[in-house]
Amino acid sequence: MDPEMDYEALNRTNWDERAPVHAASRDYHVQDFISDANFLSDVVKFDRPLLGDITGLACVHLQCHIGTDTLSLARLGTASVTGLDFSGASLAEARKLASATDGTGGERLGFVEASVYDAPAVLPQGSFDLVYTGIGALCWLPSVAQWAKVVRSLLNPGGRLFVRDGHPVLLALDEARTDDPVLGWSYFERGGEPTIFDEAETYVHTGGYKFQATRTASFNHGIAEMVQALLDEGMRVTGLVEHQSVPWNALPGQMTKDESGKQHLVSSFSQNW
Length: 273
Description:
This protein is of the alpha/beta class. The protein has ten helices and nine strands. The strands form three sheets. A five-stranded parallel β-sheet has the order 3-2-1-4-5. The chain has a two-stranded antiparallel ribbon with strand order 6-7. Helix 7 packs across helix 9. The radius of gyration is 18 Å and the shape is globular. The chain starts with 6 loop residues before the first helix and ends with a helix.
């Protein structure tokens, strides 16, 4: 690990540049949220069967980005949803969306700018019925054990956590290989040591926008590390599902999109399972 590099600042710069581009992308459907009071994000629609009834719950959405999933949670009937993100540019877009959808869920949204690890200092502890974190979030955090402590501090007695993320095996695969899946990165945490990626692209259609902030620091977490972190905080695991799809093209050249837009791994390896 480079002790001189601020990995969170590196990632924040990356997300700050991408936030307005994501909000303008057709893939985030911002105009659909504004024009259709019942519109939900694909992420929350996928999560809904396992998420269950969240009517009347006080919810906090960690790493909320531009707020489309946050608004979707509000439209499922939550009493309120607080979105937290470390990117000021992302929250600027989230607040625009909330304002544009006031009366159709946006009025129940609030947003706080902070790192996930700083959440207990800026949010009322023990006051949330539901902590929600969406897909593609945990890889930006160096310690899943510290994340679990944050979750526990935010939940009220009897509250629950809902988390869906990319499978750690997927995140350990070498995206440069297009013949067969090959492990190129660590499956486990490495004591806060990140994998540095330099990518000029993003995961949604941008019309050819050229990004300047291309470097990110990513951290993988094994399934057992995630589960044990929650158990260590006295939480009870009531469900564990391994999905066979993700909502983005994680391995270009190795995945295929189904009719609902989900991406699946296609190779001789996956066909043999």
